[in-house]
Specification:
Elements lengths: L1 H4 L5 H14 L3 H8 L4 H12 L2 E2 L8 H7 L1 H7 L1 E7 L2 E6 L2 H6 L1 H8 L2 E5 L2 H22 L10 H21 L1 H28 L19 E7 L6 H8 L9 E8 L3 H8 L7 E6 L7 H9 L6 E5 L4 E2 L3 H10 L5 E10 L6 H23 L11 E4 H7 L9 H11 L3 E11 L5 H22 L3 H34 L2 H4 L12 H29 L11 H21 L18
Parallel strand pairs: 1-4, 3-4, 5-6, 5-8, 6-7, 10-12
Antiparallel strand pairs: 2-3, 8-11, 9-12, 10-11
Helix pairs in contact: 2-3, 6-9, 9-14, 10-11, 11-16, 11-20, 11-22, 16-22, 18-19, 19-20, 19-23, 20-23
Length: 590
Amino acid sequence: MAMLRDGVITAHDVVQALAHVRTGGGRLIDALITGNPRAEGRIYTAMGTLLGLGVADLRQAPDPRLIDRLGAAFCMAHHILPWRDSGGTIIIAAAHPEVFQQHYAKLITVYGPVTHALAPQSQIETAILNARGPQLARNAETYLPLKDSCRSFRKATRRGLILLSVLGVLAVAMLPLTLSVLLVWAAFTLALTTVMKLGAVLTTPRADAPDDNVVIARLPVVSVMVGLYKESDIAARLVRRLGRLDYPRDKLDVVLVVEEDDHLTRDALRNSDLPAWMRVAVTPRGKVKTKPRELYFGLTQCRGSIIGVYDAGDMPEADQIRKVVERFAHRGPEVACLQGILDFYNPHRNWLSRCFTIEYASWFRVILPGLERMGLPLPLGGTTLFFRRDALEKLGGWDAHNVTEDADLGMRLVRQGYRTELIQTTTYEEANCVALPWIKQRSRWVKGYMMTYITHMRHPRLVWQQMGMRGFLGFQVLFLGSLTQTLLAPLMWSMLALHLGFGHPVATWLSPGIVTALSILFVFAEFVNMATGMIGLHRSGQKISRAWVPTLVLYFPLQALAGYKAFWELLHAPFYWDKTTHGALSTHKA
């Protein structure tokens, strides 16, 4: 090998690179560069000499007009850079000859005569970002049509504030009547959500039953995206955890999506010795900085026909990807999404982590399976999500402005005739177990639910037509019902004052019989909540004492605080992403 002879690399470097390729897949040149990052330029020069190709010096900026002819998004997705016009022949920079050959027909159609020059993939991405970063950012933020996006919400904020001010004045003027109406409405939605939970509890769980008649002749490429922002402390652990996934490395494409200005995370990943099947996609600066914007940009970089989404702190089960591939193979194209189970690996840290674990067990192991069996819409869970790529792209991907993009996407799937199925595979993550960070995280979720409900209900008749009566009513209970319960929970708790002999403004408007009926409803709803928690905890296998379940009555007031924070932000900072910090509190070193 010429590189050995010329001293560019050593025999030890070659042995290590070959071992890297055998265990992790990929190309030998990439493995050599991973082991010798400082020799990257010399390795490419030697490679160019061997192949009879030039090496593009991308310190010289590309001609942006050439990029525009092919499209910046296409160039970034395929790691191709139309660099310079040299006497009528366009020099195309690509890291590998096979990449150039793969797109040769398209290149000559667009440019006429072309020639290939080698260049490192990282330099190609940087050059495209420098030349057309703002354009790529706009694409990520506005790809979803305005009619389906919440990004127009800011225009309605002023009108909403005026309306709320007027309603507030009227409400104060008629305080007892207002409280009575709100209390009855809260009780009505509580009854509906309780019936829904009871239905979930009473329906028989359905076990996954693979269809052995379907044979997967060729495993598909699966791309898994992980959105990262200021995650420098967890990068190495994330690489180790995803490295345990049991799937052929040449079919696994892990894309770690980072913000352009997040140098801490980018440096941490650069120092983490990423295997060939893991790579970094840098999202250009934009007007908003949200996870869905990262995911849309990452989608343009993915090469798989199945797209998965993980969070930074996730630890998926090793066979998860294989289960997903098998399930999609056994289902028709109408099943566009699979949702896995989420659980925690630090449930015993404190009281808050125990309550959070019980809540997750209730949601993922009782309520969501019940909704699926009852044929109701499924709000997606943010991570351990897997999509058929063609369906995801037809839907327009994620709404870059929605801070609970998963719930919104789940509803758009239903509206366009697709189905989501639950799959029995678990991803473990870190439970947020400090009150203030918990409230920040939950307020983002509640705000996203508000944004999702407002966005979809701009055209209620169309939603009814697309979802059908059952889906529409389920959507109302899931979103409007849960939001009502969050915001009006203190009003319902205040009813305890009547039973303790204290006065209450509603006493003059509601008869003793109605007050008694409401009290019975509240007690019954709490009983159903506890039963749901007990069943979910049993199904999860978490070793948490059932005695902690009744303490959820002290846990839910935090949700109300998060709800008011969410409502304030909805009016003043609708697209602000209150970030969850991963890995800061966990002692789990896996």
